[in-house]
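Slide 14.
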Amino acid sequence: MRAAFFDKAGIENLRVGEFPDPVTTGHDVLVKVHTAGVNPIDYFAISGRHGLKSGPALVAKPMPHIAGAEIAGTISKLGSHVKDFVEGDRVAIYSRLFDGTCDYCRAGLEMLCRTGGIIGVACNGGFAEYVSVPSKNVCKIPDGMSWEEAASMSVTALTPFHALREAHLRAGEGLLVFGASGNTGMVAVQLGKMAGASVIAVSSKGWVRDLGPDHVIEDRNTVVEQVREFTEGKMADVVLNSLGAESWEASYESVAINGRWVTFGILTGAQVSLDLRSLYNKQIKLMGSTGGTMEEFRELVKEVKGLNVRVWKKFGLEQTRDALDALFAKQRDGRIMLVF
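Slide 15: predicted structure.
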């Protein structure tokens, strides 16, 4: 099969060529990839930045390696023990490997599995014509779901879905979303509205209004003032900041008394400073969130209808390096996808 792969860290080492076909065991399914989302996870896995966790290791494995964590395609082969699927099923793939036996898995927290990792980091991923994955990681997609939406389920959609549940966002509350035009941000805005929250989106992109937020803040330098105005001084019950250090101060100052601040990203840096007095005086809850559970993934795929996944550009497999370079382009205006 053809794949985009690398044998040592560095985007410059990525090449497209023939790669051995995946090995499928009795409990696996072989998926013919149709669409793969291009995600910062993939860039970091290939470049070696941020030391992505891959089971007990801190680098992508095995080598040579195929990245690609967000995958949707069609089942082309079933392992001998697989009974719940048939060849030709359209599926989305849960991106977290899990053993199903550790204490976290038994508690339904598969994304925290002690021996697990991310598909495309801990094992070969979806930047290839075919990928082999455990059948327990696969979920059939509804007939009306687009390939772009299906390929966005496992990271772009599941990450904010889980984060907002961790923050216990309720109907009638205020949600402030930083990076609202980014992969996870655009979904967070929509999920907030589905939950009945009043949503404030921070983005300079005019199309974010099409996602349905109640307010849009285009000037990042006036976030706190505008949140105060929109909420009549109450501030936001839940603040989602997936960007990192650059927007830390504005996001933290925007949290209401007894509010929740939640993050799952460090694109603009990981180190921040915190005045503990404000933390306890306002009884703020700081929360970290990662991925989502298998149960949440199934619920998201089967029950959450009509997510607007804005796609900026589509690339072919031969253009994988161009797709990765475009991920951080200033002119980027939506998702980037590989289409096979």
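Speaker note: Residues 54 and 77 are 26 Å apart (CA to CA).
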